[in-house]
Amino acid sequence: MHAMTAHPPILRLAPLALLALAMLTPMLPAAEMEYYMKMSDVDGESVDDGHKDWIVLLSFSHAINKRVEDFVTTGRSTFTPIVVTKIVDRSSPLLMRATAGGKLLPAVQIEAVNAKTQQTYLRYEMKNVLISNWSTSGNADIQPTEQLFLNFEEIKVIYHRYTLGSPDPVESVEMGWSVIDDAEAPRKTE
What whole-number distance in Å separates Cα of residue 24 and Cα of residue 140? Predict the structure, then answer.
């Protein structure tokens, strides 16, 4: 008989607990999309070949609301500001100044790009943009971030569809809207 070393029961369960923890911990996927924003007279720190000096975004969101009564739409469409979140960078003081001074930005563009293929899937183009809200936050664990609320007079949204292995889009679908006129805006394709 071999002499056995006695371990407390809890230590005998440690390898099993580590295995269970590894199986239950979700794997964090690599970033699938990258978001970039280009603003008139405001440079960011992107080093991406197709987006040099654009502002790198962590996220963005946008909504359109239409009032419905008795299953009939009534009133104007309400476009919420586009809300973008970004890391503090060299554009930050300029964005603070633009917000505080009510500076009209003639053009702002946001692109959603596939991180693996570098294909642009979604593009927002806005005209006559005002930043209505700028805020920042941070803690000891992460770089400070900023959130901006972008209000615009006109917007165009373009979605590009690709097929597997194709570098060029096989289809592009777009919409343009004048918030001022509450009507479809003229379409111009680049």
Answer: 27
Q: How far apart are CA 21 and CA 181, in angstroms?
A: 56
Measured distance CA(105)–CA(172) in Å, rounded: 27
Rounded to an integer, what distance in angstroms lies between the CA atom of residue 52 and that of residue 49? 6
Q: Which domains does the chain have, with CATH numbers?
A: 30-184 (2.30.110.20)
Cβ(102)–Cβ(37) under 8 Å?
A: no
* Backbone torsion region of residue 13, taken as left when φ is above 0, otherwise alpha when ψ lies between -120 and 50, otherwise beta: alpha
**Can you tell me which residue has the tokens 């930005």?**
105
pLDDT tens-digit series, residues 13-33: 655 555 554 555 444 455 689
Phi/psi at 153 (5° precision):
-90, -30
State pTM to two decimals. Answer: 0.78
* Per-position DSSP letters for 111-134, written without gaps between them: EEEETTT--EEEEEEEEEEEEEEE
